[in-house]
Amino acid sequence: MDLWNIFAWIFAIIILSVTYWYMTIPKNLPPGAAGLPIVGYLPFFNLQPHITLDKLAQKFGNIYYVYMGSQLSLVLNDFESIKQAFLTQGDTFAGRCHLTEFEDINGEISGIIMTDGEFWKQHRRFILRNLRDSGVGKLTIEPLILNEIQYFLTELRKHDGKGHFDLKHYLSASLTNNINILLHGKRYDYAHPMVADTLQAIKDFEEIGQVLPLETFFPWLKPLLIKLNTKRMAKLVNLRTAGDERMASVIKETASTFVAGQTDNYVQAFLNERNNRLKHNPNEAIFTDKGLIAIGLDLTNAGTDTSASTLAWTAMYMAKYPKIQRKVQDEIDSVIGQREPSYNDRNNTPYVEAIINEIHRIVSLVPVSVPHRVMHDTTLCGYNIPKDTMVLPNLRAVHYDQKLWGDPENFRPERFIGSNGECLKPEYLLPFSIGKRACAGEPLARMELYLYFVSLMQNFTFLEPEGLELSFESIPGFLRQPKIRLISIKSR
To answer: Are 478 and 160 in contact (CB under 8 A)?
Structure first.
């Protein structure tokens, strides 16, 4: 076979591949971008995916499809389409994508964040009930959080007037303790391995897992891609194994003193629930030791980094906007004074609430929420959506929609203050998402954000670091983390 014949065969294969690629795109999809054969639109994605999704929305509208490798994905860029999908058709859009790397790392049990089905349903229901019973709604957990805040403030005072420091480190340590108390009733010094190792693991996982692995989009190449990336997989497996061991040790310690009927913390409530189930079904397979470890890690990881990052961003905005900081301090001084705050105070401190809401909006900590999966063929906004389509809710697009906010690029907490001075709560503010996949820890997170922010404003004024200009630029990753995390404080 001469060279021209070889080129002819290669050309024919390329033409056939391209033709097959476009012919297999499902019919009556919304407008969108198929991209290139095999790789789809992946080569054109920015390291911060929401930027690419925003640009595609300008071309295709607020609901469109995009191929990410061989994975068909549906992008929702406005509140109405997200609402229709996650509220009107909540069950249909409540699935989780099968991210092969997570499955390999976690094994058969993956907690509740990355799973769906009966395990997810029962454990999510149990977590919500336990949070309610442990007092997030009745405020009985509030004294424990306020006690932890005092330890936190003591650490911060060491930096009073002494230059810039990493506030998020102390926030993460303190918030981890809140989860520890909720899980097993015990707090630790910030230098204790239970805290330090957890924070290091969260940081390491963020650095390694900033970008989803290619086998997520090319599952048929998984054996080859894993061999080419053994170091990454080994690091992730080691992180998960160490996390399992830490969580197993505290569960074992808590279980050693457990008495039937105790429900003072999550582990006790879990053990009590499992014992009751075993009485009726000796083959109980939902409430297991492995399941408890996985959920404990989910609650720790998700409950620490999100709230710590939100509060760190809040401090930066206060330092950058001193007039707004002074105004919120005046409100706190007038309503609360120097006594400990209560979560009930939020009803009388609308500007505090407005600032927290505006931080949620302008930061959009999770620009694109964890991908959903369509559980069966359906229609949305008049378009056909096939089963197993990946769904990407672009929450940041909603938070920057000019039709909803007018001037979304501006930091303006007053947008949340009503004509009678009350704090507005628009349904299109989505920091915790909505529907069946909304953050299960939302009640706890809201309480923490309020109590920590008020306590910080009572005790300190945030300042820009000397010689550094605060930047609101973020580094690539699932969460929007500031490039510069340093801040200065001055006692009031």
So the answer is: no
Q: Where are the alpha helices (DSSP H) in 321-439?
A: 322-335, 350-363, 395-399, 402-405
The DSSP secondary structure of 405-450, one letter per residue, reads: HSSTTS--GGGGB-TTSPBP--TT--TT--GGGS-TTHHHHHHHHH
Does the annotation place 97 within a ligand binding site? no
Buried b (16+ CB within 10 A) or exposed e, 164-203: bbebbbbbbbbbbbbbbbbbbeebbebeeebbeebbebbe
d(CA 73, CA 274): 38
Give CA 401 to chain center in angstroms: 21
Query: Is 381 within 8 Å of 32 (Cβ atoms)?
Result: no
Question: Alpha-carbon distance 82 to 75, whole Å?
Answer: 9
Element (H or E) spanning 74, and its range?
A: strand 71-76
Instruction: Look up residue 320 and give its two tokens.
Output: 């950058």
Q: Give the SS3 label for residue 235.
A: helix
Q: Rounded CA gap, 168 and 170, in Å?
A: 5
The CATH number of residue 162's host domain is 1.10.630.10
Q: How far apart are CA 348 and CA 350, in angstroms?
A: 6
Q: Under 8 Å CB-to-CB from 148, ≥6 apart: which residues?
A: 174, 177, 178, 181, 187
What token pair was written down for 401?
Answer: 């929609």
Contact 492, 461 (CB under 8 A): yes
Domain that holds residue 98: 3-491
pLDDT in tens, 333-376: 999 999 999 999 999 999 999 999 999 999 999 999 999 999 99
Three-state secondary structure readout of 237-263: HHHHHHHHHHHHHHHHHHHHCCCCCCC
Query: Tokens in use for 3?
Result: 């060279």
Sign of CA dihedral 223, 227, 231, 237: positive
Phi, psi of 314, deg, nearest 5: -60, -45
Q: Of 107-111, 202-206, 349-353, where does mean pLDDT reach its minimum?
A: 107-111
* Confidence category of residue 475, pLDDT binned at 50, 70, 90: confident
Map 128-153 to HEC letters.
HHHHHHCCCCCCCCHHHHHHHHHHHH
Query: Other C-beta atoms within 10 Å of 262: how many?
Result: 14
- Of 157, 139, 185, the C-alpha closest to 341 is 139
- The total number of structural domains in the chain stands at 1
User: Is residue 192 predicted with pLDDT exceeding 90?
Assistant: yes
